[in-house]
């Protein structure tokens, strides 16, 4: 492959995130999608028909193995539920094709470590779709931090308001708020911090009469080997969509910065600048995760969102969940599988 030729994608899964995120992202980026499959061939066929204009040659396969064997498929986009991922990935590793996997790669750190170990043994590169890193406003914030515009960081905070009080497969998982939805924010917090949290304390709350089986609010504190102070709060039960918001605040010894869904602002001693980049978290973030992965594949380097990096985010989320289940007791972030010093 090279920089000028996009990798041809085969998508495993045909659910809501594929319909509203992955396929629109690939259409926007003119990424060739060669094939799709799902547990229900009917569902995959219907979705392929919906996107027939954007992907006129999109084929529907009857299984993930059949899709992986398709010679026109060069990269596998795994957009299934986290349950059963280990078995699915084991079936796909023999085909030797790189995998871009929805987060979390698994609900448990043990299972995710096993996936990492077996993928490394098979020589298969895996990246995880941490698409918030490429949401336009959040990417601008992250770029400022990585470029040193803020100097040494002293404080990081995230406040998120949304609504997911529904009874569906993901809200039936007791750890959903930490291991799935909140994983986005813990991951971006790790990237902004630029250093690994060593311990975490968390509280989680359920509301009387809520429909979801998982908690719908959390408050998380992160501890580092240094002066950085970081906190994240999420309330997932606003009464109206008008209350939805996502705000990041980052403070350093040179400048301060903030970001919302739509804007990123840098405050320095000489003034403030606000950027309102075009695009949205979805689909732009999903396209960004694909683009970064294929660029790394072209250059034979590890992408920033490879599986080894994901394991550290999942370890942090797992420790936060354990803390919330233990009345906020501080928990050390557990070690993860690593190869070649990662």
Notes on the structure:
By secondary structure, the protein is an alpha/beta fold. The chain has 2 domains: 9-131 and 284-305, NAD(P)-binding Rossmann-like Domain (Rossmann fold); 132-281 and 314-332, Dihydrodipicolinate Reductase, domain 2 (2-Layer Sandwich), CATH 3.30.360.10. The protein has 10 helices and 15 strands. The protein has a 9-stranded mixed β-sheet with strand order 14-13-12-11-7-10-9-8-15. It has a 6-stranded parallel β-sheet with strand order 3-2-1-4-5-6. A hairpin with a 2-residue loop joins strand 13 (264-268) and strand 14 (271-275). Helix 1 (16-28) crosses helix 9 and helix 6 (136-146) runs parallel beside helix 8. The protein starts with 8 loop residues before the first strand and ends in a 10-residue tail after the last strand.
Structural class: alpha/beta
Strand content: 15-25%
The mean pLDDT is: 97
What is the terminal separation in angstroms?
25 Å
> Which CATH top level class of the largest domain fits?
Alpha Beta
**Please, how many domains?**
2
What is the helix/strand order?
A: EHEHEHEHEHEHEHHEEEEEEEHHE
Number of helices: 10
Within the CATH hierarchy, at the fold level, what is the topology of the largest domain?
Dihydrodipicolinate Reductase, domain 2
Outline, from the CA principal axes? globular
Largest sheet data? 9 strands, mixed
Low-confidence region ranges:
none
Evaluate the radius of gyration. 20 Å
What order do the strands of the largest sheet run in, or round the barrel if closed?
14-13-12-11-7-10-9-8-15
CATH superfamily of the largest domain, called what? Dihydrodipicolinate Reductase, domain 2
| Count of beta strands | 15
Identify the CATH architecture of the largest domain: 2-Layer Sandwich
């Amino acid at each position: 492959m090279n920089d000028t030729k996009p990798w041809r994608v085969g998508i495993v899964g045909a659910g809501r995130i594929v319909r509203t995120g992955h396929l629109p992202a690939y259409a926007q980026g003119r990424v060739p999608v060669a094939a799709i499959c799902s547990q229900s061939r009917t569902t995959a066929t219907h979705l392929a028909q919906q996107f027939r204009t954007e992907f006129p040659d999109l084929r529907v396969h009857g299984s993930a193995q059949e899709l992986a064997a398709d010679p026109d498929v060069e990269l596998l986009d795994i957009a299934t539920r986290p349950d059963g991922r280990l078995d699915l990935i084991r079936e796909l590793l023999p085909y030797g094709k790189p995998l871009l996997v929805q987060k979390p790669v698994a609900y448990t750190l043990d299972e995710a470590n096993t996936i990492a170990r077996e993928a490394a043994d098979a020589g298969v590169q895996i990246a995880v779709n941490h698409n918030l890193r490429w949401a336009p406003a959040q990417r601008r914030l992250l770029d400022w931090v990585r470029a040193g515009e803020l100097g040494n960081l002293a404080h990081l905070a995230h406040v998120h308001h949304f609504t997911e009080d529904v009874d569906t497969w993901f809200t039936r998982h007791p750890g959903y708020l930490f291991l799935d939805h909140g994983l986005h924010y813990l991951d971006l917090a790790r990237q902004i911090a630029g250093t690994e949290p060593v311990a975490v304390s968390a509280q989680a709350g359920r509301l009387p009469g809520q429909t979801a089986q998982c908690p719908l609010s959390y408050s998380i504190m992160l501890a580092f080997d240094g002066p950085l102070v970081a906190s994240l709060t999420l309330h997932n039960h606003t009464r109206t969509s008008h209350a939805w918001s996502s705000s990041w605040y980052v403070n350093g010894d040179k400048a301060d910065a903030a970001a919302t869904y739509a804007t990123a602002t840098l405050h320095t001693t000489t003034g403030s600048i606000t950027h309102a980049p075009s695009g949205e978290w979805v689909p732009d973030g999903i396209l960004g995760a694909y683009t970064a992965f294929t660029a790394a594949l072209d250059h034979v380097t590890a992408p920033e969102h490879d599986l080894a990096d994901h394991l550290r985010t999942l370890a942090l989320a797992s420790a936060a969940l354990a803390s919330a289940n233990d009345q906020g007791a501080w928990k050390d972030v557990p070690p993860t599988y690593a190869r070649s010093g990662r």
